[in-house]
Amino acid sequence: MKSSRIILIGSIIALIAIILPVIFYVVNFYEYNRSTDPSDWGVFGDYIGGVLNPIISFLTLIITVIIAVNISGLEKRNHDESVHNPIKPFFIINSLYFFSADVSKFAFTVGNNFYTYSPPLSPAKPYEHIEQPFFLQVENRGLGLATEHQVTFKVDLNELRHLLEFKNKEIEITTSDIIDRPDGRKCINVNLRHVRLNTSFLIFESETLGLGVVDKGEKTELHVPSLLMKAFEIHNYIQDQGFKIRTDFPSLSLKFQYKNLNGKLLKTHFEVALLYFQDQANYSVFRVVSRQLPNNN
After folding, report:
1. Contacts of 235 (CB under 8 A, 6+ apart)
2. Where are the domains of the chain?
3. pLDDT in tens, 119-159
4. Where are the transmembrane segments (predicted)?
């Protein structure tokens, strides 16, 4: 795209440079009849050549410099790829089924419910949700380890607000407008009122977590922010009770930022969805689905 714009601009400049001398000549000598004397045309040719030659030489110099810069950039990029690709990490987020530890439609378990990758054999125990935070399974299938690995979760707060707001005789859920905090972060305040639970909490638009060092071939657990999962839990409770037409939870944007062994900063972007699949006798089944967005490195 950049090269095509340069070519277009250069072509326009060259066309103007050719037309202007002719226009100036015609404007100054238009009252004279067209000559049939070859010597007059020779003078005209000398004029055109004298004007255009320096311009063409200057444009040629500019084009040569541009070509040299582009070639240098390509060579540098090829060199970087030859140096970094053999040790470049490559991350995926595994698409897996996961399960609710205790189906919300059998009891009001918001705040105590949680999600695991194994079908639960018994209802959730008190405080078990604290010991087993939900995570995404991240795998490094590249050729080198990643250091200083950080992951930023981001969610659409407007979409989340409209999804969570609900009221009937049993439960009332309200959300605030988007709050701009002094530290620059954005969030919403979620208020839940129920005969068994009154609670309020903040959900931030983005949260960054550290994964540290992830070696090649290693699988690691990327914990989803707990309050984001609490919103997911409330959403599922509303869906399970049939209070609303079933809709999917907003997809999450994940930005991976890390360095390879040579210290080069790399980035990978994912879109992750936590999708409802089906209900079983004592639990619900969901699925993690992810896709990698265009590379931004």
Report:
1. 163, 164, 249
2. 1-84, 90-293
3. 877 766 666 666 778 999 999 998 888 999 999 999 999 99
4. 7-27, 47-69
Backbone angles phi, psi at 218, to 5 degrees: -85, 140
Query: Which long-range contacts does 159-164 make (Cβ < 8 Å, 24+ apart)?
Result: 159/250, 160/188, 160/203, 160/231, 160/250, 161/188, 163/235, 163/247, 163/249, 163/250, 164/190, 164/231, 164/234, 164/235, 164/238
Q: What is the identity of the amino acid at 128? A: E
Confidence of residue 92 (pLDDT cuts 50, 70, 90): very high
Distance CA 273, CA 94 (A): 12
State both tokens at 292. Answer: 């990698």
Nearest alpha-carbon partner for 120 in 143, 141, 140, 103 = 103
Q: SS3 helix, strand, coil % of the chain, rounded to 5?
A: 35, 30, 30
Q: Which residues pair with 93 in a beta bridge?
A: 138
Joined tokens for residue 79:
């060199």
From residue 107, how far is each of 77, 155, 196 by CA, in Å?
A: 58, 28, 10
Residue range 200-225, pLDDT digits in tens = 999 999 999 999 999 989 999 999 99
Phi, psi of 149, deg, nearest 5: -80, 120
How far apart are the C-alpha atoms of 94 and 37, rounded to whole Å? 83
Q: Are 292 and 269 in contact (CB under 8 A)?
A: yes
User: Please, are residues 102 and 123 in contact by the beta-carbon 8 Å criterion?
Assistant: yes
Distance CA 62, CA 52 (A): 15
